[in-house]
């Protein structure tokens, strides 16, 4: 499907430039109905590009046995999705994957049918591997984005623990061969870009935010009537939700804290039992997966957002919480310190440290109304550079082979004030 070409206004000169429509092929090993940051970004990117006048095709595993080419609607926009025959990966609660030994055959077939101007792969593991090699043979420009963290996958493998470090090292060595076929490589934050540069021995990885549409979220500045902690994300090991539950169990009972865990995953039943064992089951709600409207409502009614994960390359859920005007308490790991500024819009805690997390949560939950209001407004200010329109503009430039300056997304409070 192709949207109507738009005229774009240059923010520096005020000049208006018509968009030249492109045919973009996006390859993703995970795509909605999968629920995770990489899938959500690919969907949001595709929808945004269509709305800006481009023709977009997605290549992704079929979410069931039904495979083929379909017109699907995601993020309120319709576009073409090439669903590949897939197998279920049973160590995980929902993952399906396209067959690796068919990756180049599938890629060649789709490329010849679509004839794209550019290929943008979101994962180097299966679909991106085939697309990169076949697009390179055809002289098609390739852009790559990395959302991969070993911690997000290794626990779902069948490898014994003593082999995992070696497997990760070999996997990155193999990944380098695919990323080097791309003209441009991106990752969501500067920390994530540096991580990838070191892992695959690359220079010049761009830090480009996955972006959010902040206008969809509804901050609540009413006087709080309860203390509610929110977590949003996959209910799985690398998210360290057990650390959050342990911290909640140690909080002062007088705070009368309620906890909402939004998301599904393989540890859902286990963590429900953990909550029972800690004596906090009556105060913890596990919602499972929810519709978008209910997710937004969960952000709006929360007092503070908690992200105990140690494997976040950006954490869209944390950005969404900030766009909802929430202070954040997060692990001091990977990209989270770029979003959470100590004492300004929340606090960082030592990863895995239950007592430290409990202390930081208490600081927010006992903050004065004025202090809480300031943290809420500061969270909102820090989301401004992550606007999806900036992300779309940058990727459009990369698709055309233009040099880009990475958008500034990691700013100080003074920078935010000056921007206003």
UniProtKB/TrEMBL annotation:
Residues 35-215 form the Glycosyltransferase subfamily 4-like N-terminal domain. Signal peptide: none annotated. One of its GO terms (biological process) is carbohydrate derivative biosynthetic process. InterPro entries: Glyco_trans_1, Glyco_trans_4-like_N, Glycosyltransferase_grp1. SUPFAM superfamilies: UDP-Glycosyltransferase/glycogen phosphorylase. GO terms for molecular function: hexosyltransferase activity. Residues 224-377 form the Glycosyl transferase family domain. The keyword Ribonucleoprotein does not apply. Keywords: Glycosyltransferase, Transferase. The keyword Glycosyltransferase applies. PANTHER family: SULFOQUINOVOSYL TRANSFERASE SQD2 (PTHR45947:SF3). Pfam families: Glyco_transf_4, Glycos_transf_1. This is D-inositol 3-phosphate glycosyltransferase.
